[in-house]
Please model this.
Amino acid sequence: MFQKLRVGAMFCKKIAVSVFFLSLFSVFASAQTVSDETTFNGYYYGGGAGSISISTNIVFSPGTIGYSGSGLSLDVDLQGHTLSFSGGHTFGQNGAMFYLSAGGRMSFANGAFNISNSFADKGPYNSVTNSTPTADAGAIYIDGSTLEFTNSIVHFTSNTATGNGGALANWFAGTFNAVNSTLFFTGNSAYHGGAIFADNGTYNFTGSTVTFDSNSCLWNGGAVYLVNYSGGANWSLLNFTDSSVTFSNNSSTGTYGTTGSYGVAGAAYVYGSSSMTFTNSYVNFTGNKTNSYGGAIDIEAG
Model:
């Protein structure tokens, strides 16, 4: 029997945020519906399998952090509505807005999904290691898990990581899939990979329109950084199939005085046996820049 979870705007302001978040993304019922437009803060932790139908626009702001438990499988049907997250802020912790842990899967379909102005900040100084830890993924950290968008309009805007991947960081055989969707990565920034980063991870865009615009990094890959430094079985892959792809006005801004090396690859940095492939796709690189070499793409042997 289809269950309906109705959440009023006034009620949301009074309910314990953590309890509401668990209700929203509950996996105890086969399907739930969230109604009434509202804005709130929250924290989510869960595992198991379930599905949600969204019948209103929902905004999580500010400082919302979502953490998926191992083995989570969650399908969210947006039903033409918008799900927005903004203002996530972590210190030395990967994934300022979402951390999808190993073995998990989360999918969004049939609507709009926005993450903006989230910051994976440096952690406190560690006197033992004599260092200050950075953090990856200004928006979503994919840790051996799967994140999917289908028939959706997706915006990652003005997110920042002090480590890798201003919007997305994809590690340990993680997978990102976008099908029949329109995606904008705009104004994100990081040390490496201003918009997206992969270390032994895969990104697949199929039948989609994808725009990387005005993203920046301090060192390599103004928009994209693909490597395999972790020593996993596979190198990182970025695949575009039957898609329209634009890289515009991305930049690698590092100078020798700030990084010890000039930043390279204004748009995309591809290292070793990692690959970026375009199949039956329209591709446009324009206005990308770097202070060193590879204004658009830099490919280096491992």
User: Anything to note?
Assistant: Residues 1-45 have pLDDT under 50 and may be disordered. The chain is about 5% helix and 45% strand. The CA atoms of residues 74 and 106 lie 5 Å apart. The first helix runs from residue 9 to 14.
